[in-house]
Design brief:
five-stranded antiparallel sheet; 11 strands; globular
Length: 225
């Protein structure tokens, strides 16, 4: 059974087609990279899988469960057991690192309140941010903020993690370092990863499978590792 299945999915905004009859599948535990230029529909794919957008037509299935079809979401985002790292990180300036993770646990509703502090500590140690649990985003470096966004995506122990150009704002050395951290966490935790980038070198490093996108369609292919 595939982790994610999209069948003839289309999506338009303001009359402009962004996805055009897209069909693809992602197997459990895979690291699939969507590669393509801005505007080709990569982010829209992630948002549809996450439940943040609704397909105009077509069907989306997660772990054998139909979650959306033809203009309807049957399963809401908080019930899809998906973690997501946004391109702009989406960190709230008034919340501490721990509070970001606490919010994610309450949103996904899969951890008992009494178990949340231990889970938060565990994940912060995993991303090497345990010593900054009480810090707010403005007190953190860019790399540390990225680790917080990653921890928030992982704290509810999702089976699927979506990442939208997660390292694009970092300098080269930090980019390489955190790319390695993402691969380490994937190897340790075994989640299914769908990763968006426009960088071919990054795609080749991160993906066990790379799929090119052009004008709302997928063009399956592999890049050498």
């Amino acid at each position: 059974m595939s982790a994610i299945e999209l069948s003839a999915v289309s999506k338009a905004y303001g009359g402009r087609a962004v996805l055009d009859g897209l069909s693809a599948s992602v197997e459990r535990g895979e690291r699939v990279v969507l590669l393509g230029p801005s505007g080709c529909g990569k982010t829209t794919v992630l948002r549809l899988v996450a439940g943040l957008e609704v397909p105009d037509s077509g069907t989306i299935t997660i772990d054998g469960r139909r979650v959306a079809q033809d203009g309807c979401n049957f399963v809401q985002p908080e019930e899809r057991h998906i973690g997501m790292v946004f391109q702009d990180l989406a960190l709230w300036p008034h919340m501490t690192v721990s509070q970001h993770l606490e919010f994610a646990l309450r949103y996904h509703m899969r951890t008992k309140p009494a178990d949340r502090p231990a889970r938060i500590r565990e994940v912060l140690e995993m991303v090497r941010m345990a010593d900054r649990a009480r810090a707010k985003p403005g007190e953190l470096s860019g790399g540390q903020q990225q680790r917080v966004a990653l921890a928030r995506a992982l704290v509810a122990n999702p089976t699927i993690v979506l990442m939208d150009e997660p390292l694009s704002s970092l300098d080269f050395d930090l980019h390489l370092h955190l790319r390695g951290e993402i691969l380490r966490l994937h190897a340790e935790l075994g989640f299914t990863l769908v990763y968006v980038t426009h960088n071919r070198d990054e795609a080749a490093e991160v993906g066990s499978r790379v799929i090119s996108m052009h004008q709302g369609r997928l063009q399956p292919g592999r890049l050498p590792h």
